[in-house]
Amino acid sequence: MKKFYAFLPFLGLFLIACEDDTTPPETTGPDPVEYTSGTADFSNYVALGGSLTSGFSDNALFRAGQEASYPNMLAGNFALVGGGSFEIPFMADNLGGMTLGGNVIAGNRLILSFLGESPAPVEVEGQGATDVADKLPGTYNNMGIPGSKSYEMLAPGYGSVTGVAMGTANPYFARFSSSETATVVGDAAAQAPTFFSLWAGSLDILLYATGGGTGVDQTGNLDPSTYSRNDITDPNVFAGSLNTVLETMTANGAKGVIANLPNVTDIPYFTTVPHNPIPLDEATAAFLNSAEAYGAYNAGLAQLQQLSIITEDELAKRTISFAPGEGNAVVIIDEDLTDLTGFNPALTNMRQATEEDLMVLTSRSFIGTLADPNNPTSINGVAVPLADQWVLTPEEQTIVENALTAYNQTIAGLATAYDLALVDANALLAELNTNGFQQADGSIVDATFATGGGFSLDGVHPSPRGYAIVANAFIDAINAKYNSNLPGVNPLDYTGLYID
Measured between alpha carbons, how far is 136 from 89 in angstroms, rounded to an integer? Predict the structure, then answer.
């Protein structure tokens, strides 16, 4: 080391001597990218849709989530090529709860609690300061309305504060609608957008699915005023609604992008809870299989099979059997089984779940609880079958898939008819669920509940990092359609899970 320091003065003299004889090479970096909007005009961008458009996350709408919405990410990139301001109807705080007339009408957002035996989502403490009656002035570019179905974007009075109190209007839209009789699409079109995005219709299927198929498939019923909340919208009603929205939004020459709908079976709400989470000791398993419990049920089924009332396949499907150890399937009610109560009232439509059944996320805190606090044997999912709301059966999944297929065919056709960019969100979410997306640091963002980084704690809506992946899919579709070269966003710039 001392020899090296001794050498430094001579090195300095050498450099001085050579200073006049050499010219340092010029250093040049890569040419700066010149972004262009191509054939699109992003100067006035308006986003239409439901909760996915608003930035809904962790079962609530709150300021940080709204800032991390995919339309806000798009608007940030649009600003590179002449895009204007993007106004958001912000909630009052980061709690997400809402009140009307002093009554709580929406709960706070979820956070992950570590106070119990295992981490579990709980509502953040406090009371959200957002009061629906506190009307926001002005107009807003993000017209994503949580809780809205396709046909509700066209409904006059959907933003009525009075209607919210009566249960006929939407509290999120009521906060910033232009009048008590306004429509969502009317307020959006009134801003004369030059470009718009539309990702709408998820709720037309989703409520049926998350409710375990407790609604009705309304295919063939063209009157949505007769629908219950969890019903599936008739495909023709869906198509007519989106066509009217697009006809209105493109009337003055606006261009845009539309996204199709993801399959609900690709979200953590249906992929987290196993069908067989029940551990049993030897004595309990033996009791459940005895004539005092399910043994009598199984014997009754066998008798009816011998009388050809049910087939051998249905007998096998309905026979209930438990074993000591882990991995016992829960017992469920399945309304698609043959009704045998006319022969024997005790032969209800019970069976054990299979891996083809999808347990809803909320069942994780219900399975194993007591149906009767005074009866320690009344264990939900074991001695007491789970009701329809806790599981989406294969028959119900088929109903969902049929509706999804019809809806996405409509969306593809409308994209062509109105010459719009099309985002294949269905394929995107399927890939997120199956393989995930590798990031620049080598990490993988996928659909694993709570730890995958792609979805929030409600198991339905993306996390900010998931929304960034969605934003990039929109950008890719826009660039391909309109010959723009907008950059993507870095998902790692956004959190995969809010921790407080």
Answer: 7
